[in-house]
Known about the structure:
Non-ribosomal Peptide Synthetase Peptidyl Carrier Protein, Chain A; 4 helices
Amino acid sequence: MYNVVELIIGGKNMKKFFQEFKEFALRGNVMDLAVGVIIGGAFQAIVNSLVKDIISPLIGLFAKTDFNDLVINVLGVNIKYGSFITNVINFIIMAFIIFMLIKGLNKLAEIGKKKNDLPEEPTTKICPYCLSEIPINATKCAHCTSELSE
Length: 150
């Protein structure tokens, strides 16, 4: 019977398998993704706290109770619509912040592109005698052999 690891790596050498995994795991994209997920999780905790500890109590002032505690009982089943609305508020705040972040990153990318989109200096010129295109530093036309003045 085959070993599970042998099935996964297809009979390859274990050292080569771990080398391929190391190259995969240490690529820039994977590391960037890992950092993004960690920061996103920490940021989500901040947004959750903002909604739960500040926004929900302020909204709860109108309901005269904690907003998360708003419940409707239907046929003996508690439906926690206050908690659901809190999660919707969390989502809207997170989506708005991510939208603003992506919009800002796109602006930065456009600024970088505009610098790179500067017109290139010409590398060719037109011979005044035969109107052929020749290198800009040419002193004699390759087509009509006319002497060119600088």
